[in-house]
């Protein structure tokens, strides 16, 4: 009898793990929380679309009963989140799963990857933030990311090359492949490109029990600045006062950025973008394009900005991460960007072999 108990004890962790990664359970969790917590749910699923949506859900639930592995369940969960056509809303493989099964993780991710334009050999992009002087008139700022870690790098470059930045008339800012990060990363660029009032539409946030819980946990982050704590505290209080509604911590429909100084240089700013320029990089484009100095070059940006402030939800299976945007731009519904992107002032043919040189020559005309 003791031997039997010992054998059963060995299987308890395995049974528990299998229950956590039951696909029907994880699909139900994802469906429930997207409906309750996603800032875009009611915008995406209108009353006249409800029957189609419910039919889609029913078909996924049926398939979930037969999905008995991490990879098959991942495909199912991604099929659900992709229904909303919002790149910020997603189920992703956890980093530990990726580390354990790198080849499988790569293949699974490729199933949902966006088609990428094949660039000519001379168009290999530099994935390091950098500054270059191209000639006696022109500088090139290559900014491949606006992640938090890049803010210090960008600010350091702006400080190091301050004299050149203030004396050369032409700037090319290359944002190709920049999938975003945080708006704080590009704050140091705004004074240089500023030519007049910049109008900003704030974000509003969906109040729900789970969103309040997650933001309250975020307050415990020891690395969070005092300003960040004050903002979160105010946001949580507003959510508690207005359950199941949207709250706007700024209290405004829009606000203006004004500065006392308009720099003589740069006189012209060209921003180079592509279909992979997304999220916070598009937020920069929205502000920059309001300047008389700025023109956008390339092709439409990614179109991933309307729903933001992504949070991680504790989906039962630890092989997955459920990421849900709880914020929504006040630009909506009048001026959407998702799945449209920012349009360039000047379209550059994707076959153009040297887009930086193309832009440089255009600025000299």
TrEMBL record:
<dbReference type="InterPro" id="IPR029045">
    <property type="entry name" value="ClpP/crotonase-like_dom_sf"/>
</dbReference>
<dbReference type="Pfam" id="PF03572">
    <property type="entry name" value="Peptidase_S41"/>
</dbReference>
<feature type="domain" description="Tail specific protease">
    <location>
        <begin position="140"/>
        <end position="346"/>
    </location>
</feature>
<dbReference type="GO" id="GO:0006508">
    <property type="term" value="P:proteolysis"/>
</dbReference>
<dbReference type="GO" id="GO:0008236">
    <property type="term" value="F:serine-type peptidase activity"/>
</dbReference>
<keyword id="KW-0732">Signal</keyword>
<protein>
    <recommendedName>
        <fullName>Tail specific protease domain-containing protein</fullName>
    </recommendedName>
</protein>
<dbReference type="InterPro" id="IPR005151">
    <property type="entry name" value="Tail-specific_protease"/>
</dbReference>
<feature type="signal peptide">
    <location>
        <begin position="1"/>
        <end position="18"/>
    </location>
</feature>
